[in-house]
Design brief:
By secondary structure, this protein is mainly alpha-helical. The protein contains six helices and no strands.
Length: about 220
């Protein structure tokens, strides 16, 4: 029997990462480098060796659960419980996460990057979604990952979710240290007023003209 919510999640996650790769391609054509897809810093390169397999599992897993009968899946891939209501909620959250991420990507524009290049300084984006949270793309990626785990709660995807979200938190802190070094007091003030992943206020951060418009994600 086809698991429709799992298939929809698979389509959304595939579309999400296809869009990421499209952005990487466009950045490479425009600038000659691939938006730090392969970061120049050694730690960033090590993290990619962990992250890329996680993402491949994240993409493939909902498709396998959606297409194959549960009895043909190894225990590691079998959902530990099934709830149609929870799956439908997960699909709705995944769609919302995808829509929100598209808005964030558009706001980032040419400043969008996937990793840290210590030698590069890009524009500081602190308006739009970035006026409410410092890392809206990371927050929405976490939501999309949690939605996947809710729709397809197998031992494997739950483990992938824990590692992925943990890496996002680590990467966010690394990027903040980098941006603080690059942008100084302007970013320090932004850090003081805007929360990392969840908005602490519905009032947008009002940047002064001198601080006007990066953030990575």
């Amino acid at each position: 029997m086809t698991h429709i919510p799992a298939l929809i999640i698979g389509i959304i996650v595939t579309g999400y990462w296809a869009r990421v790769m499209r952005l990487v391609y466009k950045t490479r054509r425009r600038t000659g480098h691939a938006a730090n897809f392969a970061p120049p810093e050694p730690l960033g390169q090590i993290l990619r060796l962990i992250w890329v397999p996680l993402v491949l599992v994240w993409i493939a897993h909902p498709w396998l659960v959606g297409i194959l009968p549960i009895k043909y899946l190894p225990n590691l891939l079998r959902p530990i419980f099934e709830s149609l209501i929870l799956s439908c909620i997960a699909v709705a959250l995944a769609l919302a996460a995808m829509a929100g991420t598209l808005i964030c990507w558009k706001k980032m524009g040419k400043s969008w990057r996937m990793g840290i290049n210590p030698a590069e300084k890009t524009e500081l984006i602190i308006t739009g979604p970035y006026a409410y949270v410092r890392h809206p793309i990371y927050a929405l990626s976490s939501l999309l990952m949690l939605a996947t785990a809710a729709a397809v709660p197998s031992p494997l995807i739950l483990a992938v979710a824990v590692v992925h979200i943990g890496l996002l938190h680590w990467e966010a802190r690394r990027e903040e240290r980098y941006l603080l070094a690059q942008h100084g007091p302007a970013y320090a003030d932004y850090l003081h007023h805007v929360a990392r992943f969840l908005p602490c206020s519905l009032s947008a951060y009002q940047a002064q003209a001198s601080k006007a418009p990066q953030s990575f994600s």
